[in-house]
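HUMAN: Now follow token order:
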Amino acid sequence: MIRGIGCDLCAIPRMEEILQDGRFLRRYFTADERAYILDRVQAAQTAAGIFAAKEALLKALGTGLSGLALDQIEITHTPLGAPAYVLNEKLCAILQRAGAQRAFLSISHDGDYAMATAVLEGD
């Protein structure tokens, strides 16, 4: 059963400007995400997609930033490149309170925008 759906859109040129200041990366991204972003040729596009994924999850949960900061949400990628949420202990507890056991993620890029959709599923 679907327990929540969220989506977010992030402007890639805006992310490109923001990335000039390393404080943004340290504030909103985990160490593994920062390494992944900085290793990419299109770092701003990647950062925009990951940022949108974090915001989409918060919208799916319906909580906003209460109880979960953006740097506590981690995005990883499978060996084939598919994005996924890292279900750490804190996120699992929040999902459980929302009646969900799983969180699915899709990220897309087109032109100047990155978009992410989060779907929460539970029994």
